[in-house]
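tool_log.txt
---
The assistant was asked to compare two proteins side by side. It first ran the structure predictor on the initial sequence, then on the second. Raw inputs and outputs are pasted verbatim so the downstream comparison step can read them without reformatting.
(1)
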Amino acid sequence: MQLYDYMFNFVGLFLFTLPGVQSPAPFGGATRQVMLNLDPTRLYAKGVSPQDVLNTLESSNVILPGGTASSAITNMW
């Protein structure tokens, strides 16, 4: 997983910046996924459907960088 992430996030982006190189697609490796076990009885009791859960996850699924960024003016975490 770590090798896939490194290749996808660093090496692939570096290759993309070279003149004449098209966007390289990752090949092989495993992508991350999340599996949910939904309890239909509890969902029904709260008036929530599986589609509601899916919509919420899709709308809140954002990719944020980790770590810190520094400049002459400010530091961000």
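(2)
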Amino acid sequence: MSKNDKIPTGSIEIRVERIEVLNESKLPPFTIEDNTDGGDDLRMKYRYLDLRRTPVRESLQLRHKMAQQTRAYLDGRNFIEVETPVLIKSTPEGARDFVVPSRVNNGEFYALPQSPQTFKAIADGLRLRQILSDRKMFP
């Protein structure tokens, strides 16, 4: 029996008397380790595997903590958080729209918002002076 001092449960030993393989798995397309051999394209294609890596998990945890601290700071200064929509009706302001086809209404499209000033004007109309606009970002 051997112990692994690098993990909290490393001193627990289990003796296996019988094992049955229920389903064999394929080798992952890249090593799921801190320093992986997968390039960016491969890691993004298999994002669900990449999320298992410690640096990615730590980045997600840091983002979470930063968002919490930002919200707490702004909440303490009477800001109101407003989540603006991801899809809106296209507006003729002249900006180039990123168009998304509607699955429900055949032949119709939605646009990714290019004009946050539209939502700022709505907030002004509601007399909301201090707002935190939570926007989703698309690469």
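---
observation on (2): The radius of gyration is 24 Å. The helical segments are 40-45, 47-50, 54-75, 116-125.
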